[in-house]
Every structure is written in structure tokens, then in C-alpha cells.
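Record DUF1015 domain-containing protein, 431 aa.
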Amino acid sequence: MVRVKPFRGLRPPPEMAAALSAPPYDVINSDEARELMKTAGETSFLRVNKPEVDLPPEINQYDVQVYERGNQNLKKFLENGWLVPDKTPCFYVYAQKMGEHLQTGIVAGVPVEDYALGVIKRHEKTQVKKENDRTRLTHVQNANAGPVFLTYRTSETVDEIVGRMTRENPEVQFRAEDGTEHSVWAVRDPVDVFAIQRAFESVKTTYIADGHHRSASAFRVGEMKIKEAVARGDVVTGEEPFNFFLAVLFPSNQLLCMEYNRVVRDLAGFSDEDFLERVSVNFEVSTTPEGSKVEPGRVREMAMCLRGSWYTIRAKDGTFPAEDPVKSLDVQILYDNLLNPVLNIGNPRADERIKYVGGIRGSNELQRLVTNPVPEEGSWAVAFCMFPVSVDQVMRVADADQLMPPKATWFEPKLRSGLVVRSLDSLEETR
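=>
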């Protein structure tokens, strides 16, 4: 059973929402964030979720000064009225429209305990450095600055409630710089709040689509807060705000999971001809006619750009275990049958000869990298355009308590940070 909890969100006044909200902390690096700050202004939420933007570039992004500045900035946002707490605990409906794609979710507090017990399922391995970073910032700020992106198998009951809510005019609506439209409704009526809680009781589990580090850090902060409370002599009931974390829950049939593509620095000493011969051992290889669509059209099929020429490669039957939820994924098939044995890519998380490119950039970006390198990027020999992993495949891996290969999924659109922030102190009332 999935449990969701309303809370008193910290939100920008509607007229400030567009200027204040910012991309998630992990989709841009520190240099890109500083560049955005040149035009973003002092109310940009980047100052809260990437506070290194307020410090000299030579200061390490994990320095204690960064977390202290993040806490100061959050306090300033509250003091200046750039973030205002709602008067009563609410759920929030959050809709995103990117082109023709629309997804609508519920913003809620979800139990830290559910993460520990596996009610909230994960499919990715976290990196200690990134996990430590979000743990320190969350603990210092005493708030969830960014939501975790969760999904669940579609519930008609939840869909009906959300559909009814979104027939009203949103409290916040704006178009971000990337063209995505964001809309937010607050659900205040106790009857509606109770209906949402009851509806999710019929949902057995949720899955982390994006936000594994935020989830892990929320669990760690919860443990830290429990120890601090016990040391003070407080009675811990499990209903404290720190025993929950901020999430947006979307139905699985609404999600857009794009491909995560790969480029490799060299051919491991092979000539182009020898490399193509090695590829043909485990893949059917065909030349893509000039002017044809290069993106793969089905599962087990990949598009390969070699020195600017495109090929379609398709995994041969018998070269992978079809029933294995991980080894049957296209990204794992490519690694097991080509990247590792032919191109000598070792640890796919650490090998500097491989680079991952989000599907939002398209096949043109892959061709550019292979054919028109720029000095700061260096040259790349071959690129692979993947067929997107499906949400069902993600859930299948998580249900089997296994982990996806690195850089397997790219969910779009990305959640904006700053539209709803969740405090870990007594702002939240027990329900």
C-alpha cells in the first residue's frame, strides 16, 4: 500500500513562479548554472538547489561554504516572501506539457520508511559523492528543495480525481525557457485530500523514475533526525516531517522515457572495415540510405554512426538471454556484445572513453560529435543511437530487485525545482 501525506508547501507567489523556478540540480553542472545566473536574477531557485552559483568558481562544489550559503539563501527566500508557506496541509497537482506530451502528477510527502522497505522501488545504483552532497544540503536547509520523480501503475481512481482537479484554472501556469508548460493546483479541501489518500491505498508500490540520490539522501537525513530527536529526549512517532520526503507521483502510462545514447572515443585499434566485421558477429548490419530516418524503430535495434555514415544494427537471436530483465535491455546487449568485448569499454560508469548523450538532443548531436569535434570535446569515433527503454521494462527490473545499467533512461520533461518546497520542521501538521 502506498501512503501519501499532505503538507504545507513553501511556494512562490504565482507572479514569481516562472522567474523563481529552476531546472533540477543534476541536469546542469556548476558552470552551466553560473551561466544561467547571468540572466536569471536574484530570485532564481538555483541559489537554493545549486548554491555554489553565489560563490567563486574556485571553491569546490562540495565545500562546507556551499551548504551554508544554500541555507542562508533559503532563509532569505522565506524572509523576502519569495517562498510563502500554505496555511493548511495540501496536496498539489502538477502538470507538464512538452509539445503534444502531457503528464500530470500528485505532489505529496511519501514515507522514508517506504524507501527502506522497498514499497518505493529503485532501479539505479547511487554514487556516494552525489548522495553525500544532497544529504548535507537537505540536512543543513532542513527542507526538501527538489522533488523525487516517482511513477506507479496507472490507477483509474487516481486519474478520476486528478482529472476533476485539473478542470479548474491552475493557480500557477507558465512556459519555461525550454518551451515546457508547467501548471500547479493546490488541493486544500479535506474531502479531496482524504480522497487522494484513499485512492493511493490501492496502489501497491511506486518506482523511482528520476531522483535516486534525493531518495537515498532523504532516507539518510531521516535517520540523522531520528538520532537527534532521541538525543533530545523526544518521542519519535514516525509522523514527523523528517520521516517523509517530497515527491511527485505520475501514472506510468503518461511518462515519456527517451533514449540515452552513447559515443565512444576510438575503435580500440581497429580499422573501420575490421570494426564493422567485428560488429557483424553479434549484430545484423545494414547501411542506412542517405536522407533516411536514422533513429531505431524497434526494440533490439540501434543506429550506429561511424565516421559520419549511419548503419542500422540489430542484435541477433541467441546473443542475449531474452527472459533476463537486465541482460535483455538494449543498452546491456550493446555493452555485452560490442562495447566491452570489441571496444574494450571497462566500467561503463567510469571509463573516460565513453560519453552518454540524452535523447532530447537527438541523432544530429551524435553526428556532430563524430564528424565535427570541437577542441574542448576532443574527437569521437562512433556513436550509438538507442531505442528507448520502456517504463514497463524499468518496473520489471525494479520488481526483480535488480539494477538498470548506467545511463539507460532519460525522462522528459524534467521537474522544475522551487514550485513546491517541503520543510522538515513543524510547519507540517499531522494527518
